[in-house]
């Protein structure tokens, strides 16, 4: 689990069996419908854990171990009277009988395990970069199936690249958990050829940041010290960005930030810092591990632009952020015994529309799903959504909970941003088949599995799919593996059969401020609240009837 009191955001639960096989995995936000599961009463992974148990057909009495991806004893000394109280606080469950073994896995150790064991590699270096673990902000590990993991390198919390990016996001008026918006805005600086100050010295294995670190208690910081250092360091970074920009905040509203030179400067300066530092750290990780294979984890591994600059072989799991430590904690106790293929992200709740009552579909026209009919609608310029099969884990919609459109004009980009109530300067990604991907963007062996790497587009993509080309000439692609998302795969095939380019705009099926839809009821509610034209739900197609809502 990623659970409180340490895991205060992105709570999650993952169930593995004694051989390390993943049975079920879900994020709490999908169940309580509170994005990132933030806030008292919302940050316990109770709903996610209950789903995992139900998926396996077991109860808490059947659990051998509960592993939590934080060293809570260090961060909260004396906070709990015993392990039973800790388990009840973290899970929201009562344990009136036998208590499973409680294992506290250091945060970066859990992140690293989540990346390596999810990869197809038998041996790899693992680079973990985030805001902070218990005592570090960056670590490098060497993993192999033949030996125990070894930590090779660590940087203190207040040298955090995550803190540096948070400072820019806060200057821009964003929550630090919305750092993706900062990354999207930064591309406008790249497109304009901005020359920005370098805020990191990458000579050698050490990184020297423009904001110096604070003195830290080595190896035993409590949550109070961690919180104090976070606030002071992020404030220092925000003040530095204000000095560079000549302003304390943007001069325009969020929907016009791309028009504000100072805002674009701040976003691009922070982005270049991340790119330069991660590029240097990746080279160090490969050297220290002694292999070319590299895995990334931690919140900074969600930075697709930085990931896309790194050479392969490179793997980022579908859940590199804090929700991923549920998987890593479980695998730290029961790791897989041999490498398999890259992990499937489709481990969440099955949408199963058979339980939807008549009220939920009132005013909607229902027909059976027909890929040719859906293709007709898309080619006619309509925008629809799909909710089919088990939900993806992670923040990227991978065609089980997606909004789709044909991206043949920039106008569709504008309409989908309006549908999602997003700023018009924000980008969208594309999805296509393996056979067509090479004609649209540069090849990515693993990053395009889960939409976790920016790729430069080709002239062909600019011609046939301008709706998914960002201002800097990149996109964040998904290459859809055969058999993983049947509805979208069938539509791509139908497009090709019509002589149309088999590529779709693919973005997450959620409105602004909401998590991805999870259940059939979520999908129908989101469909009604957004200006979508159709919904593929399980094996049915829903459209609005004249006068329907």
Describe the structure.
It is a single chain. This protein has 549 residues and is α+β, with helices and mostly antiparallel strands. Helix content is 32%, strand content 18%. It has 17 helices and 23 strands. It has an eight-stranded mixed beta sheet with strand order 13-23-22-14-16-21-17-20. A five-stranded mixed beta sheet has the order 7-6-5-10-11, sandwiched between helices. It is globular, with a radius of gyration of 23 Å.
Global geometry:
globular
Q: Characterize the biggest β-sheet.
A: 8 strands, mixed
Total number of helices? 17
Radius of gyration: 23 Å
Name the features:
23 strands; 549 residues; eight-stranded mixed beta sheet; alpha+beta; five-stranded mixed beta sheet; globular
Map the helices and strands.
Layout: E1 12-16, E2 22-27, H1 29-32, H2 46-56, E3 65-68, H3 72-75, H4 83-91, E4 101-104, H5 107-116, E5 123-129, E6 138-144, E7 147-155, H6 161-171, H7 179-191, E8 200-201, E9 208-209, H8 223-245, H9 261-289, E10 294-297, H10 304-307, E11 314-315, H11 325-333, E12 346-350, E13 364-368, H12 371-379, E14 384-387, E15 390-392, E16 401-405, H13 410-419, E17 429-432, H14 434-437, E18 455-456, H15 459-464, E19 474-475, E20 478-479, H16 486-497, E21 503-508, H17 520-529, E22 534-537, E23 540-544
Parallel strand pairs: 3-4, 5-10, 10-11, 14-22, 17-20
Antiparallel strand pairs: 1-2, 5-6, 6-7, 8-9, 12-15, 13-23, 14-16, 16-21, 17-21, 18-19, 22-23
Helix pairs in contact: 5-11, 6-8, 6-9, 7-9, 8-9, 12-16
């Amino acid at each position: 689990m990623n659970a409180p009191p340490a895991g205060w955001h992105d709570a999650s639960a993952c169930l593995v069996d004694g051989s390390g096989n993943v049975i079920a995995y879900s994020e709490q936000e999908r169940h309580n419908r509170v994005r990132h599961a933030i806030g008292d009463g919302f940050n316990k992974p109770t709903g996610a854990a209950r789903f995992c148990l139900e998926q396996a057909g077991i109860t808490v009495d059947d659990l051998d171990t509960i592993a939590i991806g934080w060293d809570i004893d260090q961060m909260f000394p004396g906070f709990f009277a015993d392990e039973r109280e800790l388990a009840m606080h973290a899970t929201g469950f009562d344990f009136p009988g036998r208590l499973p073994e409680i294992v506290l896995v250091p945060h970066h150790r859990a992140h690293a395990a989540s990346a390596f064991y999810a990869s197809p590699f038998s041996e790899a270096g693992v680079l973990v970069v985030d805001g902070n673990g218990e005592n570090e902000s960056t670590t490098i590990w060497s993993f192999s199936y033949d030996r125990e993991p070894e930590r090779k390198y660590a940087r203190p919390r207040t040298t955090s690249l995550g803190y540096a990016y948070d400072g820019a996001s806060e200057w821009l008026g964003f929550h630090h958990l919305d750092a993706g918006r900062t990354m999207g805005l930064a591309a406008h600086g790249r497109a304009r050829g901005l020359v920005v100050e370098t805020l990191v010295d990458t000579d050698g294995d050490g990184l020297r940041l423009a904001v110096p670190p604070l003195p830290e208690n080595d190896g035993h910081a409590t949550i109070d010290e961690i919180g104090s250092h976070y606030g002071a360091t992020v404030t220092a970074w925000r003040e530095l960005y204000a000095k560079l920009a000549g302003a304390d905040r943007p001069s325009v509203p969020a929907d016009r930030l791309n028009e504000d030179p100072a805002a674009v400067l701040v976003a691009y300066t922070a982005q270049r810092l991340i790119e330069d530092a991660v590029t240097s750290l990746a080279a160090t990780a490969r050297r220290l591990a002694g292999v070319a294979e590299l895995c990334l984890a931690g919140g900074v591994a969600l930075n697709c632009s930085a990931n896309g600059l790194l050479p392969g072989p490179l793997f980022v799991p579908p859940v590199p952020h804090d929700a991923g430590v549920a998987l890593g904690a479980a695998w730290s106790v029961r790791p897989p015994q041999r490498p398999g293929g890259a992990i499937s992200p489709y481990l969440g709740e099955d949408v199963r529309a058979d339980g939807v009552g008549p009220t939920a579909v009132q005013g909607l026209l229902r027909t059976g799903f027909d890929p040719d009919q859906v293709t007709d609608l898309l080619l006619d310029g309509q925008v629809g959504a799909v909710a089919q099969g088990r939900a993806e884990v992670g923040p990227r919609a991978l065609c089980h909970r997606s909004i789709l459109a044909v991206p043949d004009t920039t106008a569709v980009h504008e309409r989908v941003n309006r549908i999602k109530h997003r700023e018009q300067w924000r980008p969208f990604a594309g999805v296509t088949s393996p056979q067509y991907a090479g004609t649209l963007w540069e090849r990515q062996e693993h990053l395009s599995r889960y939409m976790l790497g920016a790729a430069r587009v080709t002239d062909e993509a600019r011609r046939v799919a301008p709706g998914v080309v960002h201002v800097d000439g990149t996109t964040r692609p998904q290459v859809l593996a055969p058999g993983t998302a049947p509805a979208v795969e069938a539509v791509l095939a139908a497009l090709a059969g019509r002589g149309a380019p088999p590529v779709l705009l693919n973005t997450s099926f959620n409105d602004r401020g909401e998590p991805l839809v999870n259940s059939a009821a979520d999908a129908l509610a989101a469909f009604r609240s957004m200006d979508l034209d159709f919904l593929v739900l399980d094996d049915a197609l829903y459209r609005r009837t004249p006068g329907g809502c």
